[in-house]
Design brief:
The chain is of the alpha+beta class. It is built from 16 helices and 19 strands. The longest helix is centred in the middle third of the chain and has 21 residues. The N terminus is likely disordered.
C-alpha cells in the first residue's frame, strides 16, 4: 500500500538558477513541419517518355511489345520479407476468428462487402489484408493455406470488381495488393486452380485501379501505401518496367511529402512511423526478389525514419502513448528495427518531430514540444502539446492515456475523442477545454499554432541537470493566457522539478477567473496515497521503490491535489484502469505559477 506523505515538511521545489546563465540551445519555434526533398532515380529520355505514356494510360505491355498479345497475369518472383506478423492473431485465424485489438470475430460471420460497417481496426485488417502476415507467422505455409483461401475466397466473392466503399480506399487497396504480392505463395499454392486464376486477375485489376486512383488517397501515408503497391506490382508482374518507373517517382515524391527533414512523419504518430518503415521493408523485399537494387532514396528514407521512433521508447523498450498510439511492446519495435537493418541511436535533433527526449540514469523523459499535426496529416490527432511521459527503468511513472488509434477493439469507439483530448494527457488544461480542437475522424482544428522551446544543461544544487522550457498559444484566443512549462531533470534521474506558468497573451491580462487542472496520469501498477494536507502524494512502485510528489503554492483559489480515475492503453489496444493526480482550482486571467516535484526516495 502506498504510504501518504506526512505533509510536515516540503522540499523547496523552485528551480535554483545560478548567477551565470546556463549554456543551452534555443530551438526555433515550431509552426508546421518542413517537408523533405527526395529525388527520384535519374531516367533516360526514353524512360521519361515511357513514364509519361504510362501516366496517360498506355499499357506497359504495349510499350514493351506493341505487336504481342498481352501476357496472362503471373508473378515473376517469390518474395522473402523479413517482417513477421502477430503469431497470436495468426493462430486465432487458423481457429476461425479474426483477433483485432483483443476482440474476436468469427470469419463465418464477417461481412466482407464494400458497404459493411466495420470499425477502423477491423476495416484495416479485413480490407487491408494485414492478417496475411499474422497467419504466415503462426505456422508453416502448408498449415496456413486453407485459412488464407477461406478468407480470400469470401472477400473476392463480396468484392468481385474494383468499386467504392472502405474496401477501395487507396490505403487499404495498397496494403492489400502489397500483401498479396509478398505472401503470394500462401494464397496461390492451393489445389483450387480456379481460385488461383481469380486471385491473379484481382492482383492485376487492383494494380490498374491504383495506377488511376493513387492520387486520390485519403492521406499521405495512404498514398505512400498505394505507391509502394504500384512499385511492387511493376517489379513482380510481366511488362512492368513502365509501372515500376512510374511507381518509383510517385513513391519518392510522396515520401518527401510525408516525412519532415528530421525523419518524423508529419502526423507525429509513432504508429504511422512504424507503418511507413514496414511499407518500405516490403518494397525492398520485392526488389531483392527480382534481383534489383532499390533506389538510394528509399534506403536514405529508411535510415531517417528509425531514429525518431527510437526516441519514443521507454526503459522497457516499448512505445510512449503519443498521437493515439498505445504502448506497443518492445519485441515488436525490436523486430521492426532489426528487419530494417538500421543501426542508430534515438533522435536528438527534434526541431520538427517535436518530441524532446532526456535520458538521465535509469530515467527517461519524453516531452511534446511541438504543435499538433495539421488536419490533413492527422489520423488520430491528439491535443497533447506540453504533455510529458516519464519512466524509471522498466516502470512507467507518468503516462498519457493513448489508445485512440485502437478504438473499435476493446477500447470503445465512443471514447475515442476523449482519448485524444488534452485532459487525456499529462499536462495543464483550462476550463476543461482542449488546447487544440479535437474533431471527428481523427482530425484536429484550431488551437496551438506556435511552440517555443529552450533546452539547456545547468547546475542544480551542485549536480548536473537538463532544463526544458516550452510554451504554447493554444489558450491565447479563448482565455488570453499562454501556457509555459519548465521541466528540470537531474542527471542521475532521481528528481524531476516542474513549473507550469500561465502568463497573459497581451500586455494586460483579462478580467475574471478560469478553472484549471494539471493532470499527471500515473503508470499502471502504481499505488498512490495522498498526504494529510493534500499538497503531496506517495507513489509505491511494483518494484518496491518509492517516489514522492509534492506541489507548491500557486496563489490560486481552492487549489488542492486529488486522485482521480484514468485509463491507459497497452500496445495491444487493451485498456487498463489507472489513477491520476490532479492539481485543480481557479486562477486569475492575469496568470499564475504552479510548481511541483517528483522525487525518488531512498
Amino acid at each position: 500500500m502506498a504510504i501518504p506523505l506526512s505533509g510536515k515538511s516540503e522540499p523547496n521545489i523552485a528551480a535554483k538558477d545560478n548567477a551565470a546563465e546556463p549554456a543551452g540551445t534555443l530551438i526555433e519555434p515550431g509552426r508546421a513541419l518542413a517537408l523533405s526533398d527526395f529525388t527520384a532515380p535519374a531516367m533516360s529520355a526514353g524512360e521519361r517518355l515511357m513514364v509519361l505514356a504510362y501516366r496517360l494510360g498506355v499499357p506497359g505491355s504495349t510499350m514493351t511489345a506493341p505487336f504481342r498479345k498481352p501476357p496472362r497475369p503471373r508473378l515473376l518472383a517469390t518474395v522473402d520479407c523479413p517482417l513477421r506478423g502477430d503469431r497470436v492473431a495468426g493462430v486465432a485465424l487458423r481457429a476461425g476468428h479474426f483477433l483485432v485489438h483483443g476482440v474476436k470475430a468469427p470469419i463465418g460471420q464477417m461481412d466482407f462487402s464494400p458497404s459493411a460497417k466495420l470499425t477502423q481496426p477491423f476495416e484495416r485488417t479485413v480490407h487491408g489484408f494485414t492478417w496475411l502476415a499474422d497467419l504466415a507467422a503462426s505456422a508453416p505455409r502448408e498449415q496456413c493455406i486453407a485459412s488464407a483461401e477461406r478468407v480470400l475466397s469470401a472477400w473476392l466473392a463480396a468484392n468481385p470488381r474494383p468499386g467504392k466503399g472502405p474496401a477501395w480506399k487507396v490505403g487499404h487497396a495498397g496494403h492489400r495488393l502489397l500483401g498479396w504480392l509478398v505472401h503470394a505463395p500462401m494464397i496461390l499454392s492451393g489445389q483450387d486452380k480456379a481460385l488461383r486464376g481469380t486471385v491473379l486477375q484481382a492482383v492485376s485489376e487492383t494494380a490498374r485501379w491504383l495506377d488511376r486512383n493513387v492520387a486520390r488517397a485519403e492521406d499521405r501515408l495512404a498514398e505512400v501505401a498505394g505507391w509502394c503497391a504500384i512499385t511492387a506490382a511493376g517489379l513482380l508482374l510481366p511488362d512492368g518496367k513502365a509501372r515500376r518507373l512510374f511507381g518509383e517517382a510517385g513513391l519518392i515524391r510522396a515520401l518527401g511529402e510525408l516525412v519532415g527533414d528530421d525523419g518524423g512523419v508529419l502526423s507525429r504518430s509513432p504508429l504511422d512511423q512504424m507503418e511507413a518503415i514496414a511499407l518500405l521493408l516490403q518494397v525492398e523485399a520485392c526488389y531483392r526478389a527480382t534481383r534489383r537494387d532499390p533506389p538510394q532514396a528509399l534506403d536514405t528514407m529508411k535510415g531517417l525514419l528509425v531514429p525518431p521512433l527510437l526516441a519514443l521508447l521507454h526503459g522497457d523498450g516499448s512505445l510512449g502513448n503519443w498521437q493515439g498510439a498505445g504502448a506497443v511492446k518492445a519485441h515488436r519495435i525490436a523486430a521492426l528495427v532489426e528487419a530494417s537493418g538500421v543501426r542508430t541511436r534515438p533522435l536528438r535533433d527534434v526541431r520538427q518531430w517535436g518530441y524532446q527526449r532526456v535520458a538521465a540514469g535509469k530515467t527517461l523523459l519524453q516531452f511534446d514540444a511541438a504543435p499538433p499535426p495539421l488536419a490533413r496529416h492527422a489520423r488520430s490527432g491528439c491535443a497533447s502539446t506540453l504533455a510529458f511521459e516519464m519512466s524509471h527503468g522498466e516502470q512507467r511513472l507518468i503516462v498519457n492515456c493513448g489508445g485512440a488509434a485502437f478504438a473499435g477493439g476493446l477500447i470503445p469507439v465512443r471514447i475515442e475523442q476523449g482519448l485524444r483530448a488534452t485532459a487525456a494527457h499529462s499536462t495543464l488544461v483550462l476550463d476543461d477545454a482542449n488546447s487544440t480542437a479535437v474533431l471527428i475522424n481523427g482530425k484536429l482544428g484550431g488551437g496551438v499554432g506556435e511552440v517555443e522551446v529552450d533546452r539547456r544543461s545547468l547546475d542544480l544544487d551542485g549536480a548536473g541537470a537538463t532544463r526544458l522550457e516550452a510554451s504554447h498559444d493554444g489558450y491565447a484566443s479563448r482565455f488570453g493566457l499562454i501556457h509555459r512549462r519548465i521541466l528540470i531533470l537531474r542527471d542521475d534521474g532521481s528528481e524531476l522539478r516542474g513549473e507550469d506558468v500561465l502568463v497573459p497573451a497581451g500586455r494586460r491580462g483579462k478580467r475574471g477567473k478560469v478553472g484549471f487542472a494539471i493532470r499527471f496520469h500515473i503508470g499502471p501498477g502504481i499505488e498512490i496515497g495522498l498526504s494529510d494536507n493534500r499538497k503531496g502524494a506517495g507513489l509505491a512502485l511494483p518494484d518496491g521503490s518509492y517516489w514522492q510528489f509534492v506541489t507548491g503554492a500557486g496563489g490560486a483559489e481552492g487549489v488542492e491535489l486529488a486522485i482521480d480515475e484514468s485509463m491507459w492503453s497497452d500496445g495491444s489496444g487493451k485498456p487498463h484502469p489507472i489513477q491520476q493526480l490532479v492539481i485543480a482550482g481557479m486562477i486569475s486571467r492575469g496568470g499564475g505559477t504552479f510548481s511541483w516535484l517528483l522525487k525518488k526516495m531512498g
